[in-house]
Automatic annotation (TrEMBL), chain A:
Gene Ontology molecular functions: FAD binding; oxidoreductase activity
SMART domains attached to this UniProt entry: CO_deh_flav_C
Membrane-spanning ranges: none
Keyword entries, A-Z: FAD, Flavoprotein, Oxidoreductase
Residue ranges of every copy of the FAD-binding PCMH-type domain listed in the record: 1-173
Identification of the protein by name: Oxidoreductase
Keyword Metal-binding: no
Pfam family of the protein (one): CO_deh_flav_C
Automatic annotation (TrEMBL), chain B:
Keywords: Molybdenum, Oxidoreductase
Entry-linked InterPro entries: Ald_Oxase/Xan_DH_a/b, Ald_Oxase/Xan_DH_a/b_sf, Ald_Oxase/xanthine_DH-like, AldOxase/xan_DH_MoCoBD1, AldOxase/xan_DH_MoCoBD2, AldOxase/xan_DH_Mopterin-bd_sf
Protein name as it appears in the record: Oxidoreductase
Boundaries of every Aldehyde oxidase/xanthine dehydrogenase a/b hammerhead domain copy: 26-132
Top-rank taxon: Bacteria
SMART domains: Ald_Xan_dh_C (SM01008)
Automatic annotation (TrEMBL), chain C:
Residues covered by the 2Fe-2S ferredoxin-type domain: 4-80
InterPro entries in UniProt: 2Fe-2S-bd (IPR002888), 2Fe-2S-bd_dom_sf (IPR036884), 2Fe-2S_ferredoxin-like_sf (IPR036010), 2Fe-2S_ferredoxin-type (IPR001041), 2Fe2S_fd_BS (IPR006058), Beta-grasp_dom_sf (IPR012675), Diverse_Oxidoreductases (IPR051452)
SUPFAM superfamilies reported in the protein's UniProt record: 2Fe-2S ferredoxin-like (SSF54292), CO dehydrogenase ISP C-domain like (SSF47741)
Pfam families named among the record's database cross-references: Fer2, Fer2_2
Gene Ontology MF terms: 2 iron, 2 sulfur cluster binding; metal ion binding; oxidoreductase activity
UniProt entry tagged with the keyword Chloroplast: no
Domain of life from the UniProt record: Bacteria
Sorted UniProt keywords: 2Fe-2S, Iron, Iron-sulfur, Metal-binding, Oxidoreductase
The protein's name in its UniProt record: Ferredoxin
Organism: Marinibacterium profundimaris
Length: 286, 746, 160
């Protein structure tokens, strides 16, 4: 295996584009090294992107949104009070990833590009309407976060494409988001179900909402019917029940070592309700 | 909350720093993988990806062609003609004609680096013919189940039993039907437990060296260096005394490190590589796939109870698979399951069944937790139905000294009633419970064990003492043995050094298992100290010119026994030791035996849980362990055993389980998915050390390591029912199952 | 595979070694530098036995490559006691019997030290969640949590 430390995204993209064998980018390594250890992914070229200037920065953009560097580890994301104030659901999703030790390394970009349907950092991004900046051998493009994963551990990134930043839109007034996941223990588990809700209020009424579900389908995806169920409501009990039903209906889960179809479907509804309540309270300024 | 004061003792019952503490908080302590040797090679093992498959061909040519690969071994490198358990051990170490479970070793390779060995292992090509497999014990016992091995059944199995039954048990007493006829309520239910792993954090590791002359050495993390020596010798056809085995510090065992798994491979590779030392360290996934686990069980229990809670009769029929080899602890599960109860009419039936899983190893009170899950759950269900208080039911039926145990022997001194009374008095039983919260209780039992024991003690020139023991220190036994030795010799605790020694230094010792180290090595150390005291009294008597009988030992010194013996100032151990060279030579003591006087231990646990009714998530709010220790030599480490046992039981009850896919492949061979409790899963674990001294031990020790894992399984099931009304009969009580049980109630 | 030259600071000392790029920092520490106090319990980030500080950040050394340590500062259990004096956490672990087999202990001590530097007065719950990535199979965590809380109290007193 060859280990590279390019100093620009362009170089990283060129290296990857020109590589013959199996290539991986290395951010926090908390997926890559596990896969190497298991022997399931043995890269010929490993391209460490942490030496590229700016990759560890979190910056507020001119329009009031955010640009998150691709090497920002979870603990650093959590320490940014202003970012958390805008997008608590995005931050808390990433903070759920692994242990304190994992938080010292794991990145949002790695979480997304690993392509796990259960990635905890991703539903919050999807609900927030985040995008990614992608650098390829022929320049850069942007894409919606939900368009990156295409199936379990598969992404739409072409050979040689590297994500060079994660972009969050401006939060704007009266907004709130939240992410909840279900795991059997209290820590150190992969989500059996995950749900992020982002909403905006007009007075007490929800004027806009996005609901994203994790671990209940081959890819993390928006559940538009679930969002519809609460838009125009004050999140009363009837709206919550409708939300839960719609979230459950949006599930296309599998039975596996972590949970059953029945359980995932049921709990997706439960989490959607609970996450919506938190997001609503946050939007109210609680 | 230990009773720390036993006024008659100076040291026993105190909590000094453990002798190996400093090494263990500074990273200096050397565990299995921490040793290296000059010229050392690294080994890696090729394992079957199939649950059951014929091995057609092994081609190692690509691996052998790599620069730096020094040896490859397969079963062909092992002696043939072994039988019985020796064959089982050899077959489990390295598959022969068939791979019997996912993870079964089929070849091993040694190379000049770890990465190279792993690469070489990936290049070894094995051709398999996949065979039908069976995983679940109830499937494995079916008459038409895939046959794992012909002729594995022993003489206990009657003609006509299904092919995978390898042992059959049927014992009991009284008139079971008459007993049920006397009852006001007779209940019969089926319970299942899944296999769990001991989950010690240190993976198996060894450094072995074996020459062409059949002489070898091994450094290994193990609970029993003599077991390793014997088993490796058997499997490789060596003379036992030619192998010297040194135990490393051990990073947990819980029974799982009382046997061999891959140790002979390092020796076989070393021999093939011209005697170079070979280091072999398992990965976590190898540990989970190919070592350890417990049996899984399917259990029918039938109990008769009167309205006042009196148990009139009980019957248990247990089926257990312990992997592809005989040896599930179905016998011990049956012995322990009714042990806390007075029973006139009782019947036990057991089946040991083969399945395509790894060979089970001992795990903390082997068998007892499964049996307790079935029996203590059913008793709780029956108490509910009859409106009987479960604590009063336990007290009413509790066995006492002199009673005949459900499994036959007469109980000596036991402390069950004292344990139950102490539980009843604990404030946790009065703590208020909120919505979705419930309390559950259960009892547990373990025999404790003696085993072959050999200990030497020697007095040093300055009057300090060294004790050589053969039982590795897993959880503070050096401290407790030093306390007892120092107490006996009348010297400071710090003046005793306890060494865990290699096989060349003592006669055969059984491992640290069966909760025996503090009991057996401790008892032998006290007897050896007594011999040294006798010799020191003799030396003083000689110097004083009086009869040795007229000298007694007190406060670390020889003293004239009363005024008639003469007037001499006490002669201290340091004075006697300082001149031992000229008064008759070294002063020592040595004791070896299978010590009599084992004292059994009962425990009672009470747990409060809160269940999320929408997700089935169970949170442990409060946990209480009450257990009879006989006497707590070092109370902190007794509490530690109680707490650790409870935590493992909680894991077993809630989330730990072997999960297989339809091809019989283990799905959760990493800690992320093999879910042992993490720190945030647990509350503080309250303990009460009950002390009903064991008359069979000089300081009253019973052994405390194992009972504590037994009650949590049923106690939590009982608490979940109290919280939700739903009763779970299958482990683990994971959220999907709990939620389904809640929903099923409508 | 060609090895790469790595220069790094371990417990305050500059060290150099040649690392196969596939080799983890854990293996570099243990097999190249002889620092075997850092343990491997899983090799996949799940147990915390391999915890070290990398430029001050708490990480699993099994999930860092040896070559990534180039130019960085690493702190391991071997550097925890200063000038022969045990860190209060180390003392409290012995005093509270917070170890049984001791295999998890180095990783837990390293992780707990990082916690107390960040939060000098953690609640029981904060300690439990911070240490959730450090598995201990022997103790049920009770005495570990008590030892950490007690060490925190002592350190606060010292600072006062
Ligand atoms: C013990 C443990 C616990 C965990 N718990 C959780 C959990 O609770 N929830 C959860 O979601 N995950 C969990 N994970 C998985 C993992 O930590 C996360 O997915 C993490 O966010 C990955 O980030 P990383 O920076 O470490 O990625 P890396 O391992 O560096 O990379 C992951 C993948 O993304 C690719 N990649 C990385 N950066 C880029 C980029 N900029 N452009 C293109 N491709 C890129 C890599 O090539 C690789 O394929 C856990 C892992 C461990 C070891
Ligand atoms: S060895 Fe690194 S976390 Fe377990
Ligand atoms: S003390 Fe053994 S794992 Fe923690």
């Amino acid at each position: 295996m060859r280990y590279h430390t390019p100093s620009t995204f362009e170089d990283a993209a060129q290296l990857a584009a020109g590589a013959q064998g199996l290539t991986r980018f290395l951010a926090g390594g908390t997926d890559v090294l596990v896969q190497m250890r298991a022997g399931s992914v043995l890269p010929d070229d490993l391209i460490d992107i942490k030496k590229i200037p700016g990759v560890s920065d979190i910056t507020k953009t001119d329009d009031g949104g955010w640009r998150i560097g691709v090497a920002v580890p979870g603990h650093k994301l959590g320490a940014d009070a202003a970012l958390r104030a805008d997008w608590p659901g995005v931050v808390e999703g990433m903070e759920l990833v692994g242990s304190t030790q994992i938080q010292g390394r794991a990145t949002l970009a790695g979480n997304l590009c690993n392509g796990s349907p259960a990635a905890d950092g991703v539903p919050g991004l999807v609900a927030a309407g985040a995008t990614v900046e992608i650098t390829g051998p022929d320049g850069t493009r942007t894409a919606k976060v939900e368009d990156v994963p295409t199936g379990p551990f598969k992404t739409s990134l072409a050979q040689g494409e590297v994500i060079s930043a994660i972009l969050l839109p401006p939060r704007g007034p009266n907004g709130g988001d939240a992410y909840l996941r279900f795991i059997p223990r209290t820590e150190m588990d992969i989500a059996v179900v995950g749900c992020a809700v982002s909403l905006t209020l007009d007075g007490d009424t929800i004027s806009d909402a996005r609901v994203a579900l994790g671990a209940v389908a081959p890819v993390i995806a928006l559940a538009p019917d679930a969002a519809k169920a609460i838009v125009g409501t004050t999140l009363d009990d009837a709206a919550l029940d409708a939300l839960a039903r719609a979230a459950s209906a949006a599930c296309k889960p599998i039975d596996d070592k972590r949970g059953t179809v029945e359980f995932r479907t049921e709990v997706a509804g439960v989490l959607a309700k609970r996450a919506a309540k938190i997001a609503y309270a946050r939007a109210k300024g609680a | 909350m230990a009773k720390d004061e036993f006024k008659e003792y100076r040291l026993v019952g105190t909590r000094p720093d453990r002798p190996d503490g400093l090494d263990k908080v500074t990273g200096r302590a050397r565990y299995g993988a921490d040793m290296s040797a000059p010229g050392m090679l690294w080994a890696a093992v090729v394992r079957s990806p199939h649950a059951h498959a014929k091995i057609l061909k092994i081609d190692a040519s690509k691996a052998e062609a790599l620069d730096g690969v020094k040896a490859v071994v397969t079963r062909a490198d092992f002696p043939t003609g072994l039988t019985g358990e020796e064959w089982n051990l050899q077959e489990n170490t390295m598959a022969g004609e068939k791979a019997l479970y996912d993870g079964h070793a089929v070849a091993a390779v040694a190379a000049t680096s770890k990465l190279l060995a792993e690469e070489a292992a990936r290049l070894i090509e094995v051709e398999y013919e996949v065979l039908p497999h069976v995983i679940d014990v109830d499937d494995a016992i079916k008459p038409d189940a895939p046959v794992i091995r012909e002729g594995a059944a022993n003489a206990s199995v009657p003609e006509g039993m299904p092919p995978n039954v390898v042992q059959y048990l049927d014992f009991g007493r009284g008139d079971i039907e008459a007993g049920f006829a006397e009852a006001d309520l007779v209940s019969e239910k089926t319970y299942k437990t899944e296999a769990t792993h001991q989950g010690y954090i240190e993976p198996h590791a060894c450094l072995g060296q074996l020459g062409e002359d059949g002489k070898g050495e091994m450094w290994v993390c193990t609970q029993g260096q003599w077991f390793i020596r014997k088993m490796c010798s058997d499997v490789l056809g060596l003379d036992t005394a030619q192998l010297r085995v040194t135990p490393s510090e051990i990073g947990g065992g819980f029974g799982g490190k009382t046997t061999i798994f891959m140790e002979p491979l390092s020796l076989a590779l070393s021999r093939k590589a011209g005697g170079k030392p070979v280091k072999l360290v398992m990965s976590r996934s190898e540990v989970l796939r190919a070592t350890g686990p417990t049996a899984s069980a399917s259990m029918d229990v039938k109990i008769g109870m009167k309205k006042d809670g009196t148990i009139t009769a009980a019957r248990a029929e247990f089926r257990m698979q312990g992997g592809a080899f005989p040896g599930s602890p179905v016998d011990m599960a049956l012995y322990c399951c009714f042990a806390p109860y007075k029973l006139e009419n009782v019947q036990h039936i057991g089946y040991d069944v083969l399945a395509n899983r790894p060979k089970c190893a001992a795990y903390r009170a082997p068998g007892s937790p499964m049996g307790a899950f079935a029996v203590e759950s059913l008793l709780d269900e029956m108490c509910r139905e009859l409106g009987v208080d479960p604590m009063e039911m336990r007290l009413k039926n509790a066995v006492v000294e002199g009673d005949t145990a459900s499994y036959g022997p007469k109980y000596g001194s036991i402390g069950l009633v004292e344990t139950l009374e102490a539980t009843k008095a604990h404030p946790n039983l009065k703590a208020e419970l909120g919505p979705n919260q419930g309390r559950g209780m259960a009892s547990g039992y373990w025999f404790n064990h003696n085993g072959e024991t050999s200990v030497s003690l020697a007095i040093s020139e300055d009057g300090t003492a060294q004790v050589s023991i053969g039982t590795p220190d897993i959880g503070g036994s050096r401290a407790s043995i030093a306390l007892m030795t120092a107490e006996t010799l009348g010297i400071p605790y710090e003046d005793v050094r306890v060494n865990v020694v290699e096989t060349g230094a003592l006669g055969v010792n059984e491992p640290t298992h069966g909760s025996r180290a503090t009991f057996a090595s401790g008892k032998a150390a006290v007897i050896a100290a007594g011999q040294a005291i006798k010799e020191m009294c003799k030396r003083a008597a000689n110097e004083w010119g009086i009869d040795p009988e007229a000298v007694e030992w007190a406060d670390g010194a020889a003293q004239p026994a009363g005024p008639n013996a003469g007037k001499f100032p006490p002669m201290t151990i340091a004075e006697i030791a300082g001149k031992m060279g000229s008064t008759g030579g070294p002063i020592s003591g040595h004791h070896e035996s299978v010590p009599e006087g084992v004292g059994a231990s009962f425990g009672c646990h009470v747990v409060d849980v809160e269940v999320d009714p929408e997700t089935g998530h169970v949170k442990i709010l409060r946990y209480l362990v009450v257990q009879d220790a006989g006497r707590a030599i070092h109370p902190s480490y007794v509490e530690g055993q109680y707490q650790g046992g409870a935590a493992q039981g909680i894991g077993w009850a809630l989330n730990e389980a072997y999960i297989y896919d339809e091809n019989g492949k283990l799905q959760n061979s990493v800690f992320l998915d093999y879910r042992v409790p993490v720190a945030s899963d647990l509350p503080m674990i309250d303990t009460v050390i009950v002390e009903v001294p064991n008359p069979g031990h000089p300081y009253g020790v019973r052994g405390v390591g194992e009972t504590g894992i037994t009650p949590p399984l049923p106690a939590i099931a009982n608490a979940i029912q109290a919280a939700t009304g739903a009763r779970l009969h299958d482990l683990p009580m994971s959220p999907p199952k709990v939620l389904a049980a809640i929903k099923a109630m409508g | 595979m060609s090895k790469m030259h790595v220069t790094t600071t371990v417990n305050g000392d500059t060290v150099e070694f040649l690392a196969d790029p596939r080799e983890t920092l854990l293996d570099s520490l243990r097999d190249q530098l002889g620092l075997t106090g850092t343990k491997e319990g899983c090799g996949t980030g799940d147990c915390g036995a391999c915890s070290v500080r990398l430029d001050g950040t708490l990480v699993c050394s099994c999930l860092v490559l040896g070559v990534e340590a180039d130019g960085k500062r690493i702190d391991t259990i071997e550097g925890m006691s200063e000038d022969g004096a045990l860190h209060p956490l180390q003392r409290k672990f012995i005093e509270h019997a917070a170890l049984q087999c001791g295999f998890c202990t180095p990783g837990i001590l390293i992780a707990a030290k990082a916690l107390l530097e960040e939060n000098s007065n953690p609640t029981e719950e904060e300690v439990r969640y911070w240490l959730a990535g450090n598995l201990c199979r022997c103790t049920g965590y009770d005495k570990i949590i008590r030892a950490v809380m007690d060490a925190a109290a002592e350190l606060r007193q010292e600072a006062a």
